[in-house]
Amino acid sequence: MYGIVNKAIEELVVVNFGPEKWEAIKKTSGIEHDFFISSEPYDDEVTFKLAQAVSLEMNMSLDEVLVAFGQWWVVKTTQDKYGDLMRSGGNNLRDFLMNLPLFHNRVMLLYPKLTPPEFRITELTESSLHLHYVSQRQGLREFVRGLIQGLGIIFKTDISIELIHSRQEGATHEIFKLSW
Questions:
Q1: H or E segment to which residue 14 belongs
Q2: In this predicted model, what pLDDT tens digit does every residue of 7-17 receive, in sequence order?
C-alpha cells in the first residue's frame, strides 16, 4: 500500500489519542519507519502490522480497527487530500457508488503502482444495490465496510450494510447489500 495509507493511520491515532499512543503503536508493531512518504509504495505487511498494533494498544478487535480506519479514510483523509476528486464522483451516495470504478481509474493516475480493488454494482434500485468487492488482498472486508459507512456520513445518508457473500465462507469475493 502507499505511504498515504500508513500516514492516515498515524493521523487517526495522533488526532484521537495523541502522539504518545502513536509511538507505543509503532513500538508494538515492530515497524522501524520513522515516517512514511505518501507517494511511495510499502509492503502490505507494514499496514497490517500497524493495524494489529492499534488493535492491541487500543484494546479493540482488528475488525473494529479496520472499520474505524475505513471511516477515517473517507471522512478525513480523502476529503482533505482529494476533495475535488471525491466531489467528481457524484452528488449522492448512490451516484458515487455507481461511479466507483471510474473513481479508482482516476486515483491510479495519481498512484501508478496502485493495485486497486474492483467494485461492481448489481441489483440496482432507487434505495439499494449489491456492491461486489474483488481484491487480491485478503483481510480488508471490514475496512471496506468502514469506507461505505464513511461515504454514508459524507453524503448524509443512513445506510444499512449487509454482508451477503464472503471469501471466508467460500465465495470468490465479498458482496455487500447496501440499502438507504
A1: helix 3-17
A2: 999 999 999 99
Terminal alpha carbon distance of the chain: 31
Candidates 135, 176, 145; CA nearest to 63 is: 145
The CB density around residue 171, as the number of other CB atoms within 10 Å, is 13
Other beta carbons within 10 Å of 84: 6
H or E element: which one contains 133?
strand 128-134
Q: Work out the number of other CB atoms within 10 angstroms of the CB of residue 71.
A: 22
Q: Which three-class secondary structure string do you get for 64-108?
A: HHHHHHHHHHHHHHHHHHHHHHHHCCCCCHHHHHHCHHHHHHHHH
- The DSSP bridge partners found for residue 132 are 120, 175
pTM for the model stands at 0.91
Question: What is the helix, strand, coil percentage profile of the chain, to 5?
Answer: 55, 15, 30
